[in-house]
Amino acid sequence: MDLETIQKKLEKKLKKSRYQHTLGVMYTAASLAMRHDTDIHKAMLAGLLHDCGKFCSPKEQVKLCGKLGLELTDIEKEIPPMVHAKLGACLAEKEYGVDDGDVLNAILHHTTGRPQMSMLEKIIFLADYIEPGRKMIPGLDEVRLLAFTNIDAAVSVCAKNTLDYLKNTEKNINPLTEQTYLFYQKEEDGR
Ligand code: FE
Ligand code: FE
């Protein structure tokens, strides 16, 4: 399916603000791909579809996962944002015809990141955080700059900011976010 067809589908399925965010992520991902010598089309495709699993409530997302035979871990069930990523990767493949493993992984890991991400995975993880429509959060300017100058440092700071936010709001923390932070912090120290 081409980008335009997917865009039209998503415009109907997602609520307006989510669709706007999606376009922001798609174009930000394209810019990061230009900067980091990565396939621009893949970056746009992954950016466009990264939240395609967020077209219904978290409860309905869990139900749909069950219908599709997607198994959710206990951690994923406790942390609703994890569910849309898993569902999204599945829908990207089945409903939008994506067969590129790197694109599917970028969608699957966009909320938490993971150690040893591909460049495309890092790009989508960061584009989701820094797209122009994001409301100002502490550290956003720093991550926006680092995403274009030192992408591993950007991932580390982004994961750290997410951890701090989750701790402050007493939300459940996915261990993967912690692992992402620790891995990319080490990458930095090793320089
Ligand atoms: Fe998301
Ligand atoms: Fe998003």
Describe this protein with a few key phrases.
single chain, Hypothetical protein af1432, 11 helices, binds fe (iii) ion
Low-confidence stretches: none
The CATH level-2 architecture of the domain at 3-134 is identified as Orthogonal Bundle
Measured distance between first and last alpha carbons: 41 Å
CATH fold annotation of the domain at 3-134 = Hypothetical protein af1432
List cofactors, ions and other ligands: fe (iii) ion
Total of helices: 11
Q: Quick one: CATH class of the domain at 3-134?
A: Mainly Alpha
Structural class estimated from helices and strands: mainly alpha
Cα gyration radius (Å): 16 Å
CATH homologous superfamily caption of the domain at 3-134: Hypothetical protein af1432
Approximate strand percentage: under 5%
SS elements, strand count: 0
Look at the structure and give the mean pLDDT.
Answer: 94
Main pleated sheet: none
| Tertiary shape | globular
Please give a structural write-up.
The chain is mainly α and 191 residues long. It has a domain of 132 residues: Hypothetical protein af1432 (Orthogonal Bundle). It is built from eleven helices and no strands. The model has no long low-confidence stretch (mean pLDDT 94). The chain binds fe (iii) ion (2 copies).
TL;DR of this structure?
The protein is an all-alpha fold and 191 residues long. It is 70% helix and 0% strand.
Any chance you could write out the topology, listing elements then pairs?
Elements (H helix, E strand, L loop, with lengths): L2 H11 L2 H20 L4 H10 L8 H10 L6 H5 L1 H15 L6 H8 L10 H12 L9 H10 L1 H18 L6 H15 L2
Bound molecules: fe (iii) ion (2 copies).
